[in-house]
Amino acid sequence: MTESASLALPVLDAGLEARLRERLTEVESRLEVEIRSEAPFITEACRHLLHAGGKRFRPLLVLLAAEAGPDAASEDVLTSACVVELTHLASLYHDDVMDEAVLRRGADSANARWDNHVAILAGDWLFSKSSELTARLGADAVRIQAETFTRLVEGQILETVPATQDELLGHYLKVVEGKTGSLIATSARYGAMFSGASAEVVDALTSYGEKVGIAFQLSDDILDVGSDSDASGKTPGTDLREGVPTLPVLFALRSTDPGDGRLQELLGAPLEDDALHAEALELLRKHPAMDEARSYVLTLAREATEVLTVLGDGPVKDALVAFADLIATRSS
Ligand code: FPP
Ligand code: MG
Q1: Which atom of ligand 1 sits closest to the CA of residue 234?
Q2: Atom 6 in ligand 1: residue holding the nearest Cα
Q3: pLDDT band at residue 113, thresholds of 50, 70 and 90?
Q4: What's the average model confidence in pLDDT over 310-318?
Q5: Ligand 1 centroid – CA 98 distance (Å)
Q6: Lowest CB count within 10 Å: 41, 123, 318, 323, which one?
Q7: 127 lines ligand 1 (CB under 6 A)
Q8: 220 CB under 6 A from ligand 1?
Q9: Which residue has the higher pLDDT, 245 or 126?
């Protein structure tokens, strides 16, 4: 039996907390079953990151958004919670290959534990599984899933395309909307849709999910600079090493303070040299751009909650507001 799931979100209402915990535990058991293949090695490769941890933000958001409709524990709500986690998990296997990352969720990445071929095929297999489950949800879900996945992959590809100097921030935000906003928006949308919420509520929660998703990726990028691997379960400074200009870097590059010359020089290219990488990371960690980036994310997360007036006051709205706040201020 799966242990009771822990919630990555403090929920003040005891009844709501118990319902979310129970349903997330059910989602966890189903995920465990879904990643079983007839080939034991595929099961082992997919179980590796599923078991390594993860905050389960996406399925939690499905379950929370579902509380806005009359049938919050419907079969389709639970299935769609599995769909979004499996899609996310699939993308992590591929992302770590692209980033040459060796650490994920505090464990060896699949590419480090085995090799790139295993990581790519395990990601493909997980994505196929999530597609099988989506087919159970009907034609609308298949279309939404396909559109979401197109956006997700487009975002990831766009990240590899250099932007011109005057469009750096706009380019970065487009990447983030695609690679992360898309699936988090769909998580909230599925929850509302499959619990039978009104079209107005589905639209509001989709827009909430998109903004919260962007805030989530921005805070992830801030943590890539500011947190150590014990907290994040990943190797700090991966974006800097890969030369991906994220929010703190873009803000530091905008500075006109002559004292920032050395940092700006270092940030101009991928940082493969260990000593230069460590120097840039240290300078960036104490740069005011970090606080500027944190406050940008907080503003975005607050904006995300503006559409929630459609829900009326109560524990579900409070929990969605807390979810947005948590995402903007998280430390892991
Ligand atoms: C994390 O970026 C990456 C994503 C949110 C999306 C990755 C998508 C793909 C690799 C396409 C997947 C394709 C298939 C077929 C499954 P990050 O590197 O900034 O985040 P991190 O800090 O968690 O590594
Ligand atoms: Mg990565």
Answers
A1: 22
A2: 179
A3: very high
A4: 95
A5: 8
A6: 41
A7: yes
A8: yes
A9: 126
